[in-house]
Design a protein that fits this description.
Length: 255
């Protein structure tokens, strides 16, 4: 049973909100009473997700947003303020996978592609969220890293570089903005049962079995379990938590 939160009168922005962990977090914020701006590169899907929340009685709008374009990231924040008057919480979740590759064979194009979304996209979203939050003197941001931000694995150099970078970005901004009333943290999900992971492992039954074997908890994570951590980090119960990279990984990084 998840704890109950009261985010009435507050506004949350979630990137990568059309599916998976982003959609689960948007739902969790809405169920706690927040108005939610769902941003995603897939405009049709994010509009559908926002409409489902609105139909359930929540305040929600969808925004098309490619986080690799800083102007679009800024516009998503502007839409939140235009629609709801402020911005209190953000989950910078938009991310992509990179295909496994020998480190000696990874292309510059692939490195740039994955870092453009996973690192530069988080940087751009956080930058413009902070511009709004510093005028308010309050706010909470959670950036999505990964267990790949905490460990190294073969054939994952570009992806892990992007996720390690998110943690550095988070920690530096956290110590800069904590004195201004804004808390910034990161979550580091393990292998979560999302469409992105399903696509990555499609037709790889042996790989899935090996991943589950490596999980001390013995299963994949659920998007809702990551969302619960995000909502907690944004809420008053985490008021003294600043600059952490919180593993939500079923014990994987405790090996």
């Amino acid at each position: 049973m998840n704890p109950r939160y009261d985010f009435e009168g507050q506004v949350a922005l979630v990137t990568g909100a059309a599916s998976g962990m982003g959609l689960a977090a948007a739902r969790a914020f809405a169920q706690a009473g927040a108005a939610v701006v769902l941003a995603d590169i897939n405009k049709a899907a994010v509009d559908k997700a926002a409409q489902e929340l609105a139909d359930a009685g929540h305040q929600a709008i969808g925004v098309g947003c490619d986080v690799t374009d800083e102007d679009q990231a800024a516009r998503a924040v502007d839409r939140a303020v235009e629609a709801f008057g402020r911005l209190d919480m953000a989950f910078n979740n938009a991310g992509i996978q990179a295909p496994p590759s020998d480190a000696a064979d990874e292309s510059a194009e692939e490195f740039d592609r994955v870092n453009a979304v996973n690192l530069r996209g988080v940087w751009a979203a956080q930058k413009h969220e902070l511009r709004q939050m510093r005028t308010q003197g309050s706010g909470a941001i959670v950036n999505c890293s990964s267990l790949g931000g905490l460990v190294g694995l073969p054939e994952r150099a570009a992806y892990h570089a992007s996720k390690h970078g998110v943690i550095g970005l988070t920690k530096s901004a956290a110590v800069e903005y904590a004195p201004r009333g804004i808390r910034i943290n990161a979550v580091c999900p393990g292998v979560i049962d999302t469409p992105m992971v399903a696509d990555m492992l499609e037709g790889q039954a042996e790989a899935m079995a090996e991943i589950i074997r490596q999980q001390p908890i013995g299963r994949l994570g659920k998007a809702e379990e990551v969302a619960a951590a995000v909502v907690w980090l944004c809420g008053p119960a985490a008021s003294f938590v600043v600059g952490v990279a919180l593993p939500v990984d079923g014990g994987y990084t405790s090996h």
